[in-house]
Structures are given as structure tokens and as C-alpha cells.
């Protein structure tokens, strides 16, 4: 029976390591900020924006780290602000009605983002449980391994289901982002035409 026990313990350690790695990856995904760097080959003249709500409670952006830093520098004392860059020029909008409409456009994305964050926390917690169970398997007697293996399989199935949900939410987030960007572009075009946007470069 020595060889099967050694094999089972080796597999259990592998499960524990894989689960621990999954926890690290999930934690990074759940806590990382937005990807601010422009992808390779992306034009600096693309439509980018940073929308700050009142105070420090909410912000939405689609752009690079330079956009974020510039928008933050132009903001005063937690004021609501829309910074955008288009055609190589940068502007800010402080008009209350325009900002209210911009926030309405972004609300579906924010709500979905909150769901993604909550789901990421569930994935992270489940990953920690998998890692702990994997460690138990690594140190367990042969008589316990069957039950621990069933528990690990059940956790794996839950993790896979959460992963599918996260994938669905990610695709929906991409769709909503595309719609919101198109509508926001129309909104700022109207603000420009009415003299409500201040050029800042």
C-alpha cells in the first residue's frame, strides 16, 4: 500500500499548490485597479475619459495612466468632474447637468462592476478553502483521502461555476462599456458645441 499512499499525497500537494496559486491570482484580479496603459499600437488620439463623482466614492475611466493623473490634478477638493481627450486635445466639463447625464450613462457599468467585485471575493474565499483542504489532503491518512477528495471536487465545481459567471459578467461589461463610450462621446460633442467644455492643453 506504500506506493498508492505516496501517489495520493503527491497529488494532494499538487492540488494545494494549485489552489494557493489560484487564490493569489484571484486576489490580484479582485484588487487590481483598471488597466491604464494603452495597448500596443493604440493611438494616443483615441477617445479617452475619466469621470469623477462627488467626493472620492466613485470614478469611471477608459484611458491611460496619464489621463488619470491629468484628470486628478485638474480636480479640486473632490468635485465631480469629467475629463476627456479626443483628437489630441484634452478638456474638462464641470457643468452639473452634463455630469449628471454622464453618471447616468455609466451607472449600468458601475452596478455590474460591483457584481464582478463581489463575485471575485467569493472566488477568492473559495480558493482559500481549496488551499486549506489541499493541505489537509497532503497530511491526511489514506482512510481520510476519499472524503477529502470528494470535498475538493465539490469546491472545484463551485469554483468553475463562479468562473463561468465571471466570464459572462466580463462579456457584459465589455458590451456596456462600448455602448457607454459611444453615448458619452455624443454627450461631450454636445457639450463642446454649447461651450460647456474647457480645453486644458
Can you give a write-up of this model?
The chain is 68% helix and 11% strand. With 201 residues, the protein is an alpha+beta fold. The protein has a 5-stranded antiparallel beta sheet with strand order 2-1-3-4-5, with helices on both faces. The protein is elongated, with a radius of gyration of 24 Å. The model is unreliable at 1-42 (pLDDT under 50).
Low-confidence stretches: 1-42
C-alpha Rg, in Å?
A: 24 Å
- Spatial separation of the terminal alpha carbons: 75 Å
The helix content, as a percent range, equals 55-70%
Given the C-alpha coordinates, what overall shape results? Answer: elongated
Specify the structural class.
alpha+beta
How much is the average pLDDT? 78
Find the count of extended strands (DSSP E, 2+ residues). 5
The topology string of helices and strands comes to HEEHEEHHE
What fraction strand?
5-15%
Query: How many H/I helices?
Result: 4
Order of strands in the sheet with most strands: 2-1-3-4-5
What characterizes the major β-sheet?
Answer: 5 strands, antiparallel
Topology at a glance:
Elements: H1 2-31, E1 48-52, E2 59-62, H2 65-74, E3 81-86, E4 89-93, H3 96-139, H4 142-193, E5 197-199
Antiparallel strand pairs: 1-2, 1-3, 3-4, 4-5
Give a quick rundown of the structure:
The chain is an alpha+beta fold. The chain is built from four helices and five strands.
From the structure above, extract its key features:
five-stranded antiparallel sheet; alpha+beta; disordered N terminus; 5 strands; 201 residues; elongated
Amino acid at each position: 500500500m506504500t506506493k498508492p499512499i505516496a501517489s495520493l499525497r503527491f497529488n494532494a500537494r499538487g492540488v494545494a499548490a494549485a489552489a494557493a496559486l489560484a487564490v493569489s491570482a484571484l486576489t490580484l484580479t479582485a484588487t487590481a485597479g483598471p488597466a491604464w496603459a494603452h495597448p500596443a499600437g493604440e493611438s494616443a488620439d483615441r477617445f479617452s475619459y475619466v469621470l469623477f463623482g462627488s467626493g472620492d466614492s466613485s470614478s469611471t475611466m477608459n484611458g491611460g495612466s496619464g489621463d488619470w493623473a491629468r484628470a486628478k490634478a485638474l480636480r479640486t477638493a473632490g468635485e465631480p468632474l469629467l475629463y476627456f481627450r479626443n483628437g489630441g486635445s484634452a478638456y474638462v466639463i464641470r457643468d452639473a447637468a452634463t455630469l449628471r447625464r454622464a453618471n447616468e450613462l455609466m451607472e449600468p457599468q458601475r452596478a455590474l462592476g460591483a457584481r464582478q467585485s463581489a463575485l471575485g471575493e467569493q472566488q477568492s474565499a473559495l480558493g482559500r478553502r481549496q488551499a486549506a483542504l489541499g493541505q489537509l489532503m497532503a497530511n491526511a491518512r489514506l482512510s481520510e483521502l476519499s472524503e477529502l477528495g470528494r470535498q475538493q471536487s465539490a469546491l472545484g465545481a463551485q469554483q468553475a461555476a463562479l468562473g463561468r459567471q465571471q466570464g459572462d459578467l466580463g462579456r457584459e461589461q465589455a458590451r456596456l462599456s462600448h455602448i457607454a463610450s459611444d453615448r458619452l462621446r455624443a454627450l461631450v460633442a454636445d457639450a463642446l458645441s454649447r461651450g460647456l467644455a474647457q480645453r486644458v492643453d
